[in-house]
Amino acid sequence: MKDLFDRFSTGCARFTGRPAMLVLCIGLATLGIASYLSGDDHFLNGANLAISVTTLLILPILQATQNRDGAALQAKIDELIKSNENARDALIGLEKRSEEEIERVRAEDGNC
Q: pLDDT per residue over 54-65, tens digit each?
């Protein structure tokens, strides 16, 4: 199930970065404006529903993609820290610590 979600969210995230998504958003915005100007309550409710559903579907997909990208970036940075003999090993996994611990590590350096 997780693999299916990962593939689905990756595909959707790629789609959201393409011109077709911009066209879809412009279409939804036009639909929203047209429904408002028409004064028809059913049309307005339908347009609002379409915009809301689109927003609710895109947000978790983008968040999942951002989480995965952030984790990959942290793994790369951790690998660079391990390979540099002058780097402090205490920085590895720093993103998993509390804000106070992060500030304490930064203060130890004296340069931040």
A: 888 888 888 888
